[in-house]
Amino acid sequence: MLIGWKDHYAIDDGVIDDDHRFLIAALSMIIDQIRKKIPVCALLRNISHVRGVAELHFKREEKLQKQSNYPCHRKHCEEHREIIRKLDEIVNQLADLPGDREYSDPDEVKSFLYRWILAHITESDQRMKPYLAEIQTEAELPLRLMAQR
Ligand SMILES: [Fe+2]
Ligand SMILES: [Fe+2]
Question: How far apart are the CA of 76 and the centre of ligand 2, in A?
Answer without folding.
Answer: 6
